[in-house]
Structure formats: C-alpha cells, structure tokens
Fold this protein.
Amino acid sequence: MRVLFWGTPGFGLPSLEAMRAAGHEVVGVVTNPDRPSGRGRAGRGRALRASPVKEWALAAEVPVLQPVRPGEAAFLDAARRLAPDVSVVVAYGRILPREALDLPPLGSFNVHASLLPALRGAAPINWAIICGHAESGVSIQRMVAALDAGPVLGRTRIPIHPVMTAGELYEAASAAAGARLVTVLADLAAGRAVETPQDETRVTWAPKLDREAARIDWSRSAAELDRWLRGCDPWPAAWTTLRGRSLQCFEPTVEPDAPGAGDPATTAGAPAPGTVIEAHPVRGLRVATGDGVLRVGAVKPAGRRRMSAAAWVRGVARGVADLKEVRFD
C-alpha cells in the first residue's frame, strides 16, 4: 500500500520500519516544523532541530511535508499529489481537519497508546501508570472527527509490571504499535478488516501533562506517589522544591508497614507530609507522605544530571542533620 505517514517523535519510528519491512511504500511523511534546540530565546543563535520522523525520512529519501497547519490548501494539494492509499498517524501532535482525514481513498488510521476506549487523549502512557492499571497497550482506530473515538481494527495488550515507568511503557508500546499496524494494513489490503465500534459507556480520559501538573503533592499516599513518580518518568518528571530550589524525583519505593504520616490512629505526632525522615549518604532519601513513607531512589536537581538520591545527599549535606526533618514544599 501507498502510505502517507503523520508523526513527530521517535515513538513512530518502529511503525515506519515495520511498514517498510512489510513491503508498504511510505510515499511521504508529515511532521511538525523544525523547532529551535537548546535553551534561550528562539531566533538568537539557536539551531533548528528536525523531528526524529523527519530525520528518518531524509535518511530514507522519503518526501517530507511540514505544514504549520494541516488544513492549509497548499499542503493538502501537495499531499494529494503523493497519491496515498491510506494515512497512518502516530503521535503527530495536531488535530487533523476533515479534509486531511478524507484525503486517501481508504481513510486515515491512528495508532493510540491505550486499550481504547480507555484513556483517550494526549497522555495515555503516563496515566495508565498513574491510575494503577494492570495493563495498557496500543489500538489501531479509524480516525473520525471526535478525538480517539473511531472504530478499532486491532489491539495489542501490554502488562504493566509493578515498577514500570512511563519511559519503559513508551518503548514497549512503540514496538508493539509497529507489529500491530502491519497486520491491520494487511487486513485492509485484503478486504478482511473488522472495525469494532468503541463502547462509549467505558470511555476514560488521559489529559495532557505538563511540568506544572507534575508537581508532587506529598499529602497523597505513598502508594499513589509511587505511581505518580513512575508515571512521570522521564517526562514531565515529578518534582518538588526544597529551600526554594526544584528537585525532580524518580525511582520510588513504598516502604512496607510504614506508619501513616497523616493518620493519628497509627502514629501520634507523625511528621507532616513532605518531611524528610532520612537523608543518608548510603541509604538515600525517605520522605513522609499523607499515608506511609516513600523512598526516593534518584533525583535531578535543577540544572544538573540525574543521580542517585544517596549521591545527592552526599553532595548537598555535610551530615544527616542538614536535611533530616526538612520539609519539601
């Protein structure tokens, strides 16, 4: 089949490789415009950075289209000239207008990183972990005007193990997407594809996460915060502040049988949520939560690399007393 591929981040690369290996012709890729790299203000010496999908296309000598808006008439004319049979959308990052959806004769299909109708929206991988789901997956669905609401042509389930991070689930879903997509395209080509409507009574949502939303609320239970830190790892990265400075937190462990910090029935005068219970140069960092104690295994101070919590304690504190009983904001 002649495929017009829409995508931006590296999540779509296994799908591109799988389609090419299966004999499909990627006639063009649509990706977001190049963006300034590094820090500082745009236009002041910052080089523009191509998306991973564009870099793949250039290496594969595939035409690249980068519309500012996917409804632009000039862009749609250029896409039509590529004569695709089908469009495949994998993390493109923009809403496609009806003119773009209907451009290929067989329609447009989206790879969504959840088991639809669960977790429609921008951040299904993060929220699958944050919500404590036992499994996630990928769904291939025909695109319609409503967000992630089209009929599903294929799903692949991915178990979520107890210490899985969003980054690990991202990699698993990216690989699974390519394999499932190839089977769906084969079914479409053979005329045997089955499109199953989604059950609207089972819809849940995965809203976009950004840095501000990722701030840690220490009044939550240790179990909730364990999922929160893993669901935000590596991006947008759960963070807190200590003495006015930002600190990203990773690699959580819920301490078994730890008394609830906010539960007077278990511990009289327990430390307030966010209080550092232990900051040890070998054992690392333990923090009181709204219910239980959370051990933080790794941190990333502002402007520095990610490191073990123990290494951070050794670098920040001259002794345990420098941090013990200090409270994260």
About this structure: The chain has two domains: 2-202, 212-322. The helical segments are 13-21, 52-60, 73-81, 98-101, 124-130, 166-190, 222-231, 309-316.
